Amino acid sequence: MWELIQTNQKALGAAVGIHLMLLLVMFFGVNWTDDAKPLPVTPVVQATVVDQAALDREVKKLKAAEDKKRKQKEAAEKKKKAEAKRKADEKKRKAEAKRKAAEKKKQEAAKKKRLAEEKKKKAAAEKKRLAEEKKQKAAAEKQRKAEEAAKKAAAEKKRQAEEAALKKAEAEKKKAEAAARQLELEAQYQAEQDLTEKQLIMAAIQQKVDRNWLRPPGTPQNLSCEVRVRLGANGSVLLVSIIKSSGDVGFDRSVESAVSKADPLPMPTSPRLVSQFRDIRFVFKPSS
What is d(CA 237, CA 241) in angstroms, rounded to the nearest whole number? Predict the structure, then answer.
């Protein structure tokens, strides 16, 4: 109770002052003499009477507000401590995870090193075994050839060797000539095929552009322009430019628009020709 009074000193002082003023008015307003005199008309004093119950309610309300503020402060401190604990636990968890990851990495590195050493040892042993086996085979072959050479006469051996060398040279010469002729025929055939395919593809490109072309109103007949087109590997149009104008700006722009609308343009099926169609030029002349 005393705490409440200290907290609400202004309200309590106001109530006490109003009570004292009422007492003074009552005391000086009473006629204490014996002579009966008519009571003077005095102005009505409007005073505010302090309701104790209302004062208690106000005090209670202030106390409730103080308790709420205190509880909110305690809750904030509790939340702050919980957050600090959570961050500390998270930091500890991350540190532990980092330590475990480092330990795992160290173990994996050691395992990898051990496996590499084992592999190296096995490879060295296998290499040694193969070298020994090769050495033994070479020695056996050398012995066999030496025994065979001793059985044949030197002159016969020389004749046979020269005859064999001559036959081999002639056979290799004929084989090389036949292979050269075959390659020449194949190259000629491939060149013809490539030329045909290139012509077909260029015709298909111009036809597709022509199908997507719209004649601008008022454009003269028999106009043509030379177009340069950069294409992607799949025929996508990357860049269109007019390298030889028709003399009519509207016509030139309509051709550029037709090329863009025709995206993607036909491309050859042969991988050898794809690179030749990455940058093409052709004269566009409308079919109608």
Answer: 11
Residue ranges of the chain whose pLDDT lies below 50: 32, 34, 36, 45
**Is the separation of the CB atoms in 284 and 208 below 8 Å?**
no
Predicted local distance difference test score (pLDDT) of residue 32: 43
Tokens coding 276: 């030749």
**How far is residue 75's CA from residue 81's CA, in Å, rounded to a whole number?**
10
Q: Which two tokens stand for residue 93?
A: 């968890």
Report field, pTM of the whole predicted structure over 0.85: no
Q: What share of the chain is helix, strand, coil (3-state, %, to 5)?
A: 70, 5, 20
Which tokens belong to 43?
A: 């102005």
Q: What is the pLDDT of residue 171?
A: 83
DSSP structure string for 251-275: HHHHHHHHHHHTPSPP--SSHHHHG
Q: What is the pLDDT of residue 282?
A: 95
